[in-house]
Specification:
three-stranded mixed beta sheet; single chain; HU Protein, Chain A; alpha+beta; 131 residues; 27% helix
Amino acid sequence: MLYVRVSKRYNKIKHIYMYGASLISERQVTMDELVERINARCTVTKSDIMAVLAAFQEQAIYALRNAQGVSLGELGTLYIRANTRTMETAADFTINDVLGLLVGFRPRQSFTRKLQKGQEGISFKCAKIQD
């Protein structure tokens, strides 16, 4: 069950307030919980799962630092992009206008289809209405 909160939002285009919903996140699944879940579904040991996840994190960071995308198979792709200031002209831009790096995730359609309304395990309930 996914709980949604309905709240008032300002529409910058229409210059009016409208109502929309956002999901209420209970909490995050910890690395230990993820390892437990994986261990319960296969014969790989917990220590092996932790080692693989740690190595994956290390290699994903290495790849992203080298401007390489990281394919996660049917899940999608991790990628990196620059967070920069914008300038009026290209001549005004300097390397100091690069503020940092942002990591993005581009999901595959086969992955997002499993998260659509109507799929098994996906249902909604309105939890809160904020005015």
